[in-house]
Write a structure and sequence with these properties.
Largest sheet: 11 strands, mixed
Radius of gyration: 30 Å
Oligomer: single chain
Shape: globular
Strand content: over 45%
Structural class: mainly beta
Helix content: under 10%
Length: 611
Amino acid sequence: MKKITFVVLFAAMVAMSAWAQGLTASFAAEEASVPYYLMGWDTPSEFDSWTYEATSSSTWKQGNPSQSFGIIDLTNVASMILDYAGGQNETATSPAIEIRPNSTLEFYCYASGIYLVYGAWKLYAIVDDTPTLLIDQFQWAQTVGYDGPSWERFTVDLAEYAGKQVRFSFVYQGNYGEDEAIDGFRILQANDGDDAVININEGESVHFKDMSTGNVMTWNWTFEGGEPATSTEQNPVVTYNHAGSYAVTLTVGDGTTTDTKSRTAYVNVHAEAPVAHVGLPDGAYLSPWVMMFVPVDVPLTFKDASTGNPTSWSWTFDGTDIATSDLQNPTVTYLQEGTYGLKLEVSNDVGSSVDEYVNTAIQAGGEQEVWNIAPEENGDLTMLEMGWYGNYAGTNWLGIGEFAEHFDAPATDAQIKQVNVYFGKTTAVSTDADIEMKIMAADADGMPGEVLGTTSVKAGDLAFDPATVNATEFVFDEPVDVPAGTEFFAVVGPFPNDYGDDIAILLCHRDLGEKCTGYHFVYDEEGNEYLETGTWYKNVDDPLSLAVAPVLSFVTSTPSTSIDQPVVDKQVLGHTYYNLAGMSSDKPFDGMNIVVTRYSDGTSSATKVMK
């Protein structure tokens, strides 16, 4: 018996020893990859490995733009560049490349954004002589609000091309458009091996994966240059905000022994030119028709919301007590009512960027519609249909009677004379039903509380025209006073829900966790077993903002101004369309537009258009 026990114990000790000896630290990352095609256009042989089709004397060539790609790749010698000219259709095409599984295309482009409307490139993938559009540079610039110039990284998932021979072709078309430079063109394959590295831009994150073996019980990570710098999670996510090559170390333990794995220069963070963006100051409102609506004689702190680690700031203000500032978040005061422009330029060692707004973008004082939908969102207004249960913010059969849009407190006393509501559907068989609009102050819990003013509109009088700007106006008998510092709600409903009624307010629908200003009230009804009744809810499970716009005025003694200036008996020379981000085009943008009309006498006017 003793002999058997000894044998069993000895075998168990051997097994435990082998288990302990089997502890091996190892890790990888989702972003790790190995490049298998590299093109930098740095030597004549590299350059000549592509083919170029020219239609003008100014075609793709080797050279360097004003901002060398060397700020990103220290080994850089030259870039593929093109100087704009009239009537161009220039093509640069790669040799055929066999695309491996889990591959990504990456390249950088340097160009100013302002003239891309006149000339820009499109990138195609060509398989068996059939081209497929991957990126349209002009459409990309419109989507992100790009105005440059700065080096910008582009990435394309090549999963659908795995196993295929693909040629990539840049086709520049335009007439006196924009200088272009392209560099750092490479194709990478995701890889967990020891030869893999990570290439990211400043501010991006890495998702690390523990791949250790053995009875791992503890993880101790060290991330040079990362935030956080250490972690005890098994699979941490780390953000790298500054350029450089950084090591990662993982030590794992099983309670008795430990093992360590280090990778030097594993995370390579590339410097990134900043992208300028003006943040909304406290005390300012978004609007359907101006980029922001602000009070007069109230200090406002503008917020730098730029990305890419800017190190210097240059603000230019119109109509304020200071004309310029080099502070990151300057405080200014608008001195009189009117409409004004604004400019922010940010820079770092990599490059610079400008966020500039036209002189109709900021309205100080006077009267204007306000809402919670950003300029880049107003082209995406939609409805939230709930199947058999009707519409959110409209006719429904879920016992949701009223819908509310929350607004921050005004910085000075304000008044609301009406609320404009933008509907997407207005079918009403209950045409005599009253749809009520209330302005309500926020209570101590941040929900609609005291009623400050009430009005209503008949369901049959709701306005809707998808081709034009056509809001339903809920007009109060007397302007509703909203004291300074009072958060308030515009509350609309109930809506009729007889058979045939189909009414819905337009809204901006966002992803979970994003901005939400929409609220709803569930009526106290028998048989409602799904929701607590008689209660206001903030719709955090389905974040949105309603297209509900109070017409707000700040209480001042100065007469207000309007951006709508009718002009008669003048010859129209042309139109320029501006979106609320200040970008211009000879065609309207999706969403809200300010269209500036130029006349033969040298004057111009600004009006409102929605596409």
